[in-house]
Specification:
alpha/beta, about 260 residues, 8 helices, two-stranded antiparallel ribbon
């Protein structure tokens, strides 16, 4: 499915950093660098009809200085392939500018072998799709950054946290090395975090409610924890400098998370 020009424009405006759409253009004003996110439901903006489900992209701004806004284009249910096929990467590339960052995290839906609209193979079509993000960002003068997929909550009988993404993280790591692109190893770090927290404590990080036991999506504490891992990796890989980061060692109140009304 391809997006119409109006749909692409609407998607781009919906993901603009807060206030960007209304900000006046002043001659000579220096445009701030922006962190764009291309990804799936684990990162995406959630709305009031989905609360308390929270994408980690919603918590990312809490750790970045005010002059480094976030444009979250991640969308529920998308894979590296379907995000491109629907014109969503084109919408990002139409907005992104030299000096910006394109943070790319996919795999959860690439893994769905029974869905040809979304499925990719780790060492072939997954890498081929990811190259489109890298090439597109570079062509605009932006910096692409790959992030391995955040881990689901899954434990074995002995209480050990289990990896769930098969070969996709390894394929992304190999592509990042081949292309000379910064890699945020969110998969490895989140798996280690779930291991430290254990079977019961991790329930307080995922979207477990009275009516739902969701081991993929986060609640506010989980989204904040994963966003913190992302920013730690942005510092480690020197994508961001220490002056770009705030509150990294501080507790972030879950009450800071808000869910706007659904888009009409």
């Amino acid at each position: 499915m391809s997006l119409t020009r109006r749909q692409v424009t609407s998607a781009a405006l919906a993901a603009l950093p807060l206030g960007a759409a209304a900000a006046p253009a002043h001659a000579g004003a220096r445009r701030p660098r922006t962190v764009y996110i291309a990804g799936d439901s684990t990162a995406a903006q959630k709305y009031s009809d989905a609360a308390p489900e929270t994408g980690w992209g919603m918590a990312l701004p809490f750790f970045l200085r005010s002059g480094l806004p976030v444009a979250n284009h991640a969308v529920n249910g998308r894979s590296s392939k379907s995000f491109v096929d629907e014109g969503r990467l084109d919408a990002v590339l139409a907005a992104i500018r030299p000096g910006d960052f394109l943070l790319v995290q996919f795999a959860h839906n690439d893994e769905k072998a029974t869905d040809p609209a979304r499925h990719t193979e780790p060492w072939t079509t997954y890498q081929d799709c990811l190259r489109k993000y890298l090439d597109g960002a570079r062509a605009t003068g932006a910096r692409p950054v790959l992030a391995t997929p955040v881990e689901r909550r899954r434990f074995d009988a002995a209480g050990d946290a289990l990896p769930t993404h098969g070969e996709y993280p390894a394929a992304m790591r190999a592509l990042a090395a081949e292309e000379g692109v910064a890699l945020l190893d969110v998969q490895a770090l989140s798996l280690a975090l779930w291991q430290r927290l254990g079977v019961e404590a991790t329930k307080t990080y995922f979207n477990w409610t009275a009516t739902e036991q969701d081991n993929t999506h986060f609640n506010p504490p989980g989204a904040i924890a994963v966003a913190r891992l992302v920013v730690q990796e942005l510092l480690r890989t020197r994508v961001l400098a220490s002056r770009d980061v705030i509150r990294l060692d501080e507790a972030i109140p879950p009450s800071w998370i808000t869910w706007p009304a659904p888009l009409s």
